[in-house]
Amino acid sequence: MCPAMPGTDATCVQQPTSHPSISQPLAMTPEPVSTPELWRATQTGDKAAFGLLYDHLAPLIYGLCLGMSSDAVAAQDATRQTFVQMWQQAPRLPAVYDDMRTLVCSMARRNSLTLA
User: Fold this and answer.
1) Contact at 8 Å (CB) between 39 and 97?
2) Does domain 33-115 have CATH number 3.40.50.12370?
3) Which of 32, 83, 93, 104 is at 20 to 30 A from 110, Cα to Cα?
4) pLDDT band at 33 (very low <50, low <70, confident <90, very high)
């Protein structure tokens, strides 16, 4: 589950893990995660969908933030802030995205610049 979820310890960004409902490791699962479907579920408050979205997007976001700051702690903070914003703003953000990477990378970029 995403450590940036409200009510959890949001002091660090953990490496993505597999979801309990997935019986095989993610590396062995050939089916890609449907980010638009997960995003729509997240907008209705589905924490499990948000956890899967986090697992899918966290490596990309952390890498982007680390590349912008070259500081692992700042990159973790920016990544955490990005996912907190996504969760808090989900009901107000557009429901249809073909690829969540555009939205999330924009948020992460702003957070990296703000925290730098």
Assistant:
1) yes
2) no
3) 32
4) low
